Automatic annotation (TrEMBL):
Record NCBIfam families: pepN_proteo (TIGR02414)
Domain Peptidase M1 alanyl aminopeptidase C-terminal span(s) in chain numbering: 524-840
E.C. no: 3.4.11.2
Single Gene Ontology MF annotation: metallopeptidase activity
Residue stretches making up the Aminopeptidase N-like N-terminal domain: 92-154
This protein's name: Aminopeptidase N
Residue ranges constituting the Peptidase M1 alanyl aminopeptidase Ig-like fold domain according to the UniProt record: 428-519
Alphabetized UniProt keyword annotations: Aminopeptidase, Hydrolase, Metal-binding, Metalloprotease, Protease, Zinc
Domain Peptidase M1 membrane alanine aminopeptidase residue range list: 209-420
Keyword Zinc belongs to the record: yes
Reactions performed catalytically: Release of an N-terminal amino acid, Xaa-|-Yaa- from a peptide, amide or arylamide. Xaa is preferably Ala, but may be most amino acids including Pro (slow action). When a terminal hydrophobic residue is followed by a prolyl residue, the two may be released as an intact Xaa-Pro dipeptide
Cofactor: Zn(2+)
Length: 840
C-alpha cells in the first residue's frame, strides 16, 4: 500500500458526462452493467485513461463498441482511449453476501445496501472513483425485492435518475423487503418534497422522531443558512450492519439503525439527542458536501468540519446553547485533544495518508468544526453568513478546496486569512499561558502561545487565536463585557483600562478557541467563577477545573476531598436560577482520561487504577455531602405524564438520575431498584440498571433486562455495553471476554462489536488493568476482526494511542499488543497504517 500526498494532486484525465448503471441483483453473483460517457479533461496532467476497481470480476469491457483490451490489476485498469468523447461499456460481477467489510455493495439481514464513501464505489464497478469527477447518474435495479431505491427521482420499475451531478462516493442503492413512514415537507419556495424513512417490518413505530428531526432540520437550514432542498424526494433507510453513524448519499441517506430508530421504551434521552444530531448532520450535507463537494480527500474537513459546526449550531438552537457547548467541548477534549496530543496527531487538513478511512477522525470533524467557529468569532456573524452565501453561489456544483472556502471570507471581509489558515495545516493543541498584572487602573493580560511538536512537525508558527475575555469585580458583577482578544503573536498583551481594582478574568469564554489554557489560578478563584461567571460555559469550566485540581491532589498527594469543592457543589445544587441540565453537567466530574491528561501536563505518570479508586472516594464524599438534598432533588426531577424526548424533560431526568447515582452510593441501590421496577422508558430503566451494576447488586435486573429485550438488537447492544463499562478494574476485560462467548455476540455487526470493545476501551481502569488482560484481549479481537472488517478494526485500534503516557510496565504490554497486531499475517493496510503510526 502506498502513501498518497496532498502535494501530488493532479486533475483527472477524463471527465464523465453521464453514467447508466444496471444492477442484476444476486447475493453472490450480482451483475453490474455500466455505460459511461467520458471525455478527455482539457486540464489533465496525464491523459492516460485509468479506472479504479477492486474485488471485481470483469466480464466484458468496450470503448465505443470495440473490445477495450483493458489491462487489469488488483486496484484498477487502463485502456487505450480515443482523444475525444467516447462511450465506455462494461459488465462486472460482485458478491454482496460475502462482503463483510461493509464497503461497496453488501447485504445486511437479507437487504442489499451500499456504502461508497470514501472509496467504496470502486468495489461496485470500474470508475474514476475520486470526488472531483462529478456526473449525472441513471440507475436500473433488477431483482425480486419489493423496494428498490437509488439516488434522485423515482422513474418507476426500479429505475432512478439523479439530475444533480455527483461524485461516485454519494452513489447509493438499497433493495429489500422494507416498509416506510411517509411525510411531506414544503420548502419556502413551494417545492413539495416527499419524505420517507424505510425500515424492516416491525420497526415503523421507531421512525416518527427521526421524521420530525428531519423536518426541523430542513426548516432550520432554510432559516439560518438560506438553504433549500433541491429534489422532490428525500429517503432515509435504516440498516443494521453499518460501519459508522450514517451516510449523506444524494437523496438517499443510509443510516445505521442505531442512529435513526428510537422509541421511548427502547431509546434513551441520549439516543434521541444523538439521532437528532445525525439526521441534521446528514441533511445539512446536502449543501455542505453534496452540492459543493471536496476536490480530493485531503479536503475532507471542508465538508465535515463545516457540517459538524452546522449540526452543533442546530442542536444549540434546539436544546439550549450552554449545555450543548459544554457537551461539544467534553467530546472535543475526550477525543480530539487525546488524538492531538498523541502519536496519531495530524492537521485538520492532513498532508498524506495510506488509507483515507483512517482520517475520518475527531481532528477532521471536531477540530474542523472548531476552526469554523473561530472564523465566525473573528469576522462576526454578518460577515460569516455573507461569506457562506458567497461560497454557495460561487462554488455550487463544484469540487472545492479549503483555499476556495477561505477566499470567500477574504473577499467579503477584505481580511488576509493566511495566518488563520495555519489552523488547517498545523497539528497539535496550542497551549496558551496567561500572565496578568494590574497597575493604576490598567489590567494587562499577556498571552504566550506555543504548540508542542507533533509527528512530522517539530516547530510551529504562532496562530491567530480568538480568546473571548470578560471581567468581573470582587462582588461578582460583570465590569467588562465579553471582548474577543485576537492573539496573533507568540507573546501578545491586551489592556483593560479605567478599572477600580484588580478584576477577576473569565478567559476563553464559550471555549472560543480549542486550546489548553495554562494559568495559575487558585481554587478560591475557581469557586468564585463557578458561583458568579455570567458566561455559562466558563461557569461550568471553573467547576470542572476545581474538580480536576481536587482529584489531582488526591491522586498525587493523598489529599482528602476538598471541602471548598464540596461546598461549591452544594451551592450549585441549591441554586434555583440554574437549569437542571446545567446542574447535572456540573456534577458529572472529570473523566478518568481527563485526569490522566491533567497529570501528564503536570509531568506525572498517570495510574488509571489509582485514579479510578480516588474517583470512588471523591464520589462517595460528594454523595455524603449531598445526602440531605438528594431525596428532594430526586423527587422534584421526576417527570409526570407520557415520555417525551424534549430537552426540558430530558434535562430533568439527567439531573434526577445524577441524584440517583449519588443516592445509590449511600443506600446500596434501594432507590435504583425501585426506579428499575417502575421505569416506563429506557432512560429511567437504563440509568437505574447502571446504578445497580455499579453497586454490584444488579444481577437480577441484568438478567431480567436481557429476558425483556432479547429480541431488540439495539437494546441488547446496550446490555452488552453496560456490563463492560460498569465492571471494575480487571473484571472489565474478564466480562468482555465472557460476553464474546455469548450466543448473541457477533463480529459481523459493528454495533455489537463496539458495544463490547468500545465499552472496554472506554473503561479506563479496566482496559489498563495492571495485568495487561485488557490489552491482550483487544489485540486478539482486533486481529480477528481485521480479516472481516478492516475499517472498524483500524478505528478501534486507537484505544492504544495513549501508550506513551503510562509507566514502563503498561507501555511494554501495550507495545507488545501492538507489535503482535503488526505481525499478524495478512494484516489490512487500514490496521497496519494505524499500528505503524501509533508505534512510530
Ligand atoms: N460522510 C460520512 C462519512 C463516512 C462513512 C459513513 C458510513 C460508513 C462509512 C463511512 N466512511 C465515511 C458520514 C458523515 O460524516 O456524515
Ligand atoms: Zn459528515
Amino acid at each position: 500500500s502506498q502513501t498518497i500526498y496532498l502535494k501530488d494532486y493532479t486533475p483527472p484525465s477524463h471527465l464523465v458526462d453521464s453514467v447508466e448503471l444496471v444492477f442484476k441483483l444476486h447475493p453472490t453473483q450480482t451483475r453490474v452493467i455500466s455505460k459511461i460517457a467520458f471525455r478527455p479533461n482539457p486540464d489533465a496532467a496525464d491523459p492516460t485513461f485509468y479506472l479504479h476497481g477492486e474485488q471485481l470480476k470483469l466480464i466484458r469491457a468496450s470503448i465505443d463498441g470495440q473490445d477495450a483490451n483493458a489491462k487489469v490489476t488488483d486496484l484498477g485498469l487502463t485502456a487505450q482511449a480515443p482523444d475525444a468523447p467516447f462511450l465506455w461499456e462494461a459488465e462486472v460481477e460482485i458478491s454482496p453476501a460475502t462482503n463483510t467489510a461493509l464497503e461497496g455493495l453488501y447485504m445486511s439481514n437479507g437487504m442489499y445496501c451500499t456504502q461508497c464513501e470514501a472509496e467504496g464505489f470502486r468495489k461496485i464497478t470500474y470508475y474514476p472513483d475520486r470526488p472531483d469527477v462529478m456526473a449525472v447518474f441513471t440507475v436500473k435495479i433488477e431483482g425480486e425485492e419489493p423496494v428498490k431505491l437509488s439516488n434522485g427521482n423515482d422513474l418507476g420499475d426500479g429505475t432512478w435518475h439523479d439530475p444533480h451531478p455527483k461524485p461516485a462516493y454519494l452513489f447509493a442503492l438499497v433493495a429489500g423487503d422494507l416498509v416506510n413512514l411517509h411525510d411531506t415537507f414544503t420548502t419556502r419556495s413551494g417545492r413539495k418534497v416527499d419524505l420517507n424513512i424505510y425500515v424492516r417490518d416491525g420497526d415503523l413505530h421507531k421512525t416518527p422522531f427521526g421524521m420530525d428531526a428531519l423536518k426541523r432540520s430542513m426548516t432550520w437550514d432554510e432559516e439560518v443558512y438560506g438553504r433549500e432542498y433541491d429534489l422532490d424526494l428525500f429517503n432515509i433507510v435504516a440498516v443494521d450492519d453499518f460501519n459508522m453513524g450514517a451516510m449523506e448519499n444524494k437523496g438517499l441517506n443510509i443510516f445505521n439503525s442505531a442512529a435513526v430508530l428510537a422509541s421511548p421504551d427502547t431509546a434513551t434521552d441520549g439516543n434521541f439527542h444523538r439521532i437528532e444530531t445525525i439526521i441534521a448532520h446528514e441533511y445539512f450535507h446536502n449543501w455542505t458536501g453534496n452540492r459543493i463537494t471536496c476536490r480530493d480527500w485531503f479536503q475532507l474537513c471542508l465538508k465535515e468540519g463545516l457540517t459538524v459546526f452546522r449540526d452543533q449550531q442546530f442542536s444549540g438552537d434546539t436544546r439550549g446553547h450552554a449545555v450543548e457547548r459544554i457537551s461539544d467541548v467534553l467530546q472535543l477534549r475526550a477525543r480530539q485533544f487525546r488524538e492531538d496530543n498523541g502519536p496519531l496527531a495530524h492537521p485538520v487538513r492532513p498532508e498524506s495518508f495510506v488509507e483515507i478511512n483512517n482520517f475520518y477522525t475527531a481532528t477532521v470533524y471536531e477540530k474542523g468544526a472548531e476552526v469554523i467557529g473561530m472564523l465566525k468569532t473573528l469576522i462576526g456573524d454578518a460577515d460569516y453568513y455573507e461569506g457562506c452565501d458567497l461560497y454557495f453561489t460561487r462554488h455550487d456544483g463544484q469540487a472545492c478546496t479549503i483555499e476556495d472556502w477561505l477566499k470567500c471570507f477574504e473577499d467579503v471581509t477584505g481580511r488576509d486569512l493566511a495566518q488563520f489558515k495555519l489552523w488547517y495545516s498545523q497539528a497539535g493543541t496550542p497551549r496558551v499561558k496567561v500572565d496578568e498584572s494590574f497597575h493604576d487602573g490598567t489590567y494587562t493580560l499577556t498571552f504566550i502561545q506555543s504548540t508542542p511538536p507533533t509527528p512530522g512537525q517539530d516547530t510551529k508558527d504562532p496562530k491567530v487565536i480568538p480568546i473571548a475575555v470578560g471581567l468581573l469585580n470582587e462582588a461578582g458583577e460583570e465590569i467588562h463585557a465579553t471582548k474577543v482578544c485576537e492573539v496573533t503573536d507568540e507573546v501578545h498583551k491586551f489592556r483593560f483600562t479605567g478599572l477600580e481594582a484588580k478584576p477577576v478574568p473569565s478567559i476563553n469564554r464559550n471555549f472560543s478557541a480549542p486550546i489548553i489554557l495554562e494559568r495559575d489560578q487558585s481554587n478560591a478563584e475557581r469557586a468564585f467563577l463557578l458561583a458568579h461567571d455570567t458566561d455559562p460555559f466558563n461557569k461550568w469550566e471553573a467547576g470542572r477545573a476545581l474538580a480536576r485540581d481536587v482529584m489531582v491532589r488526591m491522586v498525587t498527594e493523598d489529599a482528602t476531598p476538598d471541602q471548598a469543592y464540596l461546598d461549591a457543589l452544594v451551592a450549585v445544587a441549591r441554586d434555583d436560577t440554574l437549569e437542571p441540565g446545567f446542574k447535572a453537567m456540573c456534577f458529572s466530574g472529570p473523566s478518568n482520561d481527563d485526569i490522566q491528561q491533567a497529570l501528564v501536563d503536570g509531568g506525572v505518570t498517570p495510574d488509571p487504577t489509582r485514579i479510578f479508586l480516588t474517583g470512588q472516594t471523591l464520589n462517595l464524599a460528594i454523595s455524603q455531602t449531598m445526602q440531605d438534598l438528594l431525596p428532594r432533588i430526586y423527587a422534584e426531577m421526576q417527570v409526570d405524564g407520557p415520555y417525551s424526548p424534549r430537552s426540558e424533560d430530558a434535562d430533568r431526568r439527567f439531573w434526577g438520575n445524577a441524584a440517583l447515582a449519588m443516592l445509590s452510593r449511600l443506600d446500596g441501590g434501594a432507590q435504583a431498584a425501585a426506579q428499575y421496577a417502575s421505569a416506563d422508558n429506557m432512560t429511567q430503566q437504563l440509568a437505574a440498571l447502571g446504578c445497580l451494576l455499579r453497586a454490584e447488586v444488579g444481577e437480577a435486573q441484568n438478567a431480567a433486562f436481557y429476558a425483556q429485550w432479547k429480541d431488540d438488537r439495539l437494546v441488547i447492544d446496550k446490555w452488552f455495553s453496560m456490563q463492560v463499562s460498569h465492571a471494575k478494574l480487571a473484571a472489565a476485560p474478564a466480562k468482555a471476554a465472557e460476553l464474546t462467548a455469548h450466543p448473541d455476540f457477533t463480529m459481523a455487526n459493528p454495533n455489537r462489536f463496539r458495544a463490547v470493545f468500545g465499552a472496554l476501551a472506554g473503561n479506563s481502569a479496566g482496559f489498563h488493568e495492571p495485568g495487561g488482560s485488557g490489552y491482550a484481549l483487544l489485540a486478539d479481537w482486533l486481529i480477528k476482526l481485521d480479516a472481516k472488517n478492516p475499517q472498524i478494526a483500524a478505528r478501534m485500534s486507537t484505544a492504544f494511542e495513549t501508550w506513551p503516557r503510562y509507566d514502563a510496565d503498561r507501555q511494554g504490554m501495550m507495545r507488545e499488543a501492538l507489535t503482535r497486531i503488526q505481525a499478524a499475517p495478512g494484516l489490512s493496510p487500514d490496521l497496519s497504517e494505524m499500528v505503524n503510526r501509533i508505534l512510530a
